[in-house]
Amino acid sequence: MALVTAADLKTYMDISLTNRQLDAADMVLSGLQSEMEMYLRRPIQTIEYVEEHVVPSTHTGIPASSFFTNSNPSNESFTGNTLDNTTYLEPPATIYLLNTPVVSISRVVLTPSVSVRTFEITTKSLTSNVATLTASKAHSYAVGDVVKVSNIDSTFNGMVTITAVPSSTQFRYAKTATDVVSVAVSPKGKVLRKYTRELEETTDYIPQKYGVDVFNTYADDIVTVTYTGGLVGENIPALKLIILRAASREMQNMHDDVVGLKDLETRNVAPLQTGFLESELMTLKRYRKNRIS
User: Fold this and answer.
1) What angle is formed at CA 185 by the lines to CA 184 and CA 186, rounded to 5 degrees?
2) What is the pLDDT of residue 84?
C-alpha cells in the first residue's frame, strides 16, 4: 500500500473525486512516491528484499576483535623473529545492503567459494565409529558444518556433519564401520564444505543499519541476505505531508486543464509548479542516502 492514498488526498484537499479522477490521483501519488525515493536513494516504506553479494576476492575475514596476524598458512613454524609466510587479516566482510536503513534481517545464507573451501586429506583413521581426517592445511571448519568427503574410500566418503575439531587441521564425524588405524591417504582425498549454509546471528553475523558484518568469510564467497529495509514512512509525517502538497498541485493543474479543454478555450490560469519544490526537498535532505566515493 502506498504511503499516501487517494482517500488521504481527498481529505487534505476537502474535495470529492469521480472514479476516473481517483484513478488519476493514484497515478499521481505513485509517481510522486517514486520521485521521492529516487531523490532519497532509498525506499520510504519497509519492504522485504533478497540480495546476493560476493565477498571481494582479496578478503580474508576474522572476528573484529582480532587485529594481529593470521596463523602461518603453510603451517611452517616461525624462525627467530621472522614471520615466515604470515598474512595480515582484515575485519569481517561488511555487506552493504542497497535498501537501507535495515529494519530486520530474517536470513543470511553463505555459499562458500569452491577454490577456497576445498582441502586435501592426508591421513585417515576410524575408532569406535568416529572418523578422524587430517587436512593438508588449516581448514577453518567448525562443529556442525556439513562437508563432502570424497576420493578416499566408501567407508569415509559422503556428506557428513562435523562433530569435533581437535586441531586446526583435523576434524571428526560419526561413521559406523570397522576400526581403521591411522594411515596416510594416497592419492590424497578431498573435503569440500556443502555449498549452502544458513548463518546464525551473533555467531556468524551481526546486523547493522547499513547492512551486515559476516564472520569467517573468504574470497569470492557468496552471501545471500533476506531482510526488511527502508524508511518507516508512516512514522515520519513530513514525508506524507510533502507528497500531499505536491499531489494537490498536480490535481489542481489537471482540473484546470480538463475544464479548459471541455470549454474549448483557455482559462487564463497560471499552472502551478509540478513535482517537489526545492524548499520541500531541502526538508528531506536529512533522510537522503549519501554516496561517498
Assistant:
1) 110
2) 44
Strand locations in the chain, DSSP E? Answer: 47-54, 93-96, 102-111, 118-127, 130-135, 146-150, 158-164, 170-174, 180-193, 197-198, 205-207, 211-214, 222-229
Name every residue whose Cβ is closer than 8 Å to that of residue 78 and which is 6 or more positions away in sequence: 72, 84, 86
Name residues whose C-beta falls within 8 Å of residue 257's C-beta, 6 or more positions apart in sequence.
none
What domain range is 149 assigned to? Answer: 114-193
Residues 181-194: pLDDT tens digits? 999 998 888 887 65
Same domain, yes or no: 207 and 276: no
Q: pLDDT (tens digit, 9 = 90+) per residue, 87-107?
A: 445 567 889 999 999 999 999
Count of residues in the chain: 293
Q: Would the pTM count as exceeding 0.85? A: no
Counting DSSP H helices and E strands in the chain, the numbers are 5, 13
Cβ-Cβ contacts under 8 Å for 109 (sequence gap 6 or more): 196, 197, 198, 199, 223, 224
**C-alpha angle with apex 17: 15 to 20, nearest 5 degrees?**
160
Note whether residue 292 is domain-resident.
no
Cα-atom radius of gyration of the chain, to the nearest Å? 30
Helix (H, G, I), strand (E, B) or coil at 226: strand
Helix (H/G/I), strand (E/B), else coil: 230? coil
pLDDT at 78 over 50: no
